[in-house]
Amino acid sequence: MAPTASSSIIHLTTAAQPHIDNPGHSGLLPALIKAQKQNGYISKPVAAEIARVLQVPLAEVYGVIEFYALLYKEPTATRVIRICGDPACAIAGGHAALEAVCASLGVSPNTATADGGFMVERSPCLGLCDQAPAAMVNDMALGCIPVAVPAAIIAAKSLAKPAVVGGSLRHLTRRCGTGATPSLAAYTTDGGYSALTKAVQQLTPAAVIAELKSSGLVGRGGAAFPTGVKWESAANASGAEKYIVCNADESEPGTFKDRILMEDDPHAVLEGMALAGYACGAQRGYLYVRAEYPHAQQRLAAAIAEAAAGGYLGNNLLGSKFCFDIELRSGAGAYICGEETALFESIEGKRGFPRVKPPFPTTAGLFGKPTVVNNVETLCNVPLIIGAGAAAYRMHGTEKSPGSKLFCLSGDVARPGLYEVPFGVTLRTILDEMAGGVSGGTLQAVLFGGAAGAFATAAHLDVPMTFEDLRKADLPLGSGVVMVFNHTRNLRSVLEGLAHFFAEESCGKCYPCQLGTVRQHEILGRVAAGHARAGDKELLADVGWTMLDASLCGLGQTAATATLSAIKLWPELFAPNGQAQTARTS
Predict the structure, then answer these.
(1) Angle value at C-alpha 523, between 577 and 85, nearest 5 degrees
(2) CA–CA dist 567, 526 (Å, integer)
């Protein structure tokens, strides 16, 4: 019998907000996620009851269900096994593990066993690239899964291992990688919330913004927009109602830094958001975390409760007139929601379609109000800057790229993990001296910036890791991905995998991306299979530049970046009569 809807399913995670045209709409995605968790899928009666209680048209309810990959209209299984198929996991045996588990259970991908006990899916990046190949069984993360032993995956009960955290600096990461459970007591003993205390008791909001601008901090999510300028714009925007949004929808293949920060140092994220609220005049923040990070969500929920009980969130923080609350929101499986305006749409209970800009978020963002949106790493920098001052922050890095940067090393590297270094360190230093060098052979390529990034070769090993130097080398710093491929890897297959990712994740709102990602995948599928045709290289370039020039948002604008860089570095990969499956080391 189909499950029935109950009041617990449709309980909203926030009070109705008077400025929203339909206050219930913002609760739609949380209600659907709750129903999914309770029942394993969202039945017709449950969907109808959610629509009735929230006063949302049933067609919109189904539109949201169909948009997000982790919401289902049909029964799934008691245990859903998701095995990552993106680059770092693919080269480590992820595809073989998927096939082995399916064969062991006697099912095809996305099909449940007859008894409803198991279902197996190929998953996009799970943010466990440092522990490839990775999988999730329901909400349990599994790292370094045994490729040749499917029974061990099916019966697995252990979580992923603690992350390897290293580097020549341990400012942002000093509380990470220890294996300790974070707590408010430990955080405050280590100086936590001292920056927030200093701000609300000693500094004006304008002074906080001025210090941030002096620090030279720019966004760490990839766009590198000056953080202080963004905050100032929101602070100066008209209207009393403003929002702070933490973009923790870290879905870029190869990226896992924000996951480690959230799991090991959640209070730093909250303190950064509260500082942003104080500086910009916002009283509410939303912390949007991807669904594939359930452990991070649990840690953050506990930290929010601790911070509220300790007087660091809520009304009259630290004896001041400043009030600030944070609501934790979960995604439901959509890479596009890492784009800031698509994230707003998701929080508002809609499909995650990007908005046309302008207007920009600092004047018309979440619920149409002035909004500051920053990613986790950016916000974790803020307590350091306000606490120690901009001058101390600038003691590390370079004039144009001050401070430190987190790099996610994965793939064919001896010690995959998270490395914090000052801007200006070379790739060679990080790769060879900190991460132990290339494993399994000599260096063939490095993918910078994730699926939306570009390839480098051994010729780039001595390029300083700064915004300005990487820009000169036509390489994106992006989200800090450094994915290494040794000389045995098939770069044609890697490119096909990246193209598959974008074809699956395109939201379809604009035609250049909707059609371009599919055409790119079709062509690279031929190339990977050894059936490249005359003119395929030119077609890929044409499709790539069209997406770059005409797509609505960053997904389409960067969907061909890796392919275009590969065409530039290794044109022979795309030759119709080329049989070589690997590129020149160059």
Answers:
(1) 110
(2) 15
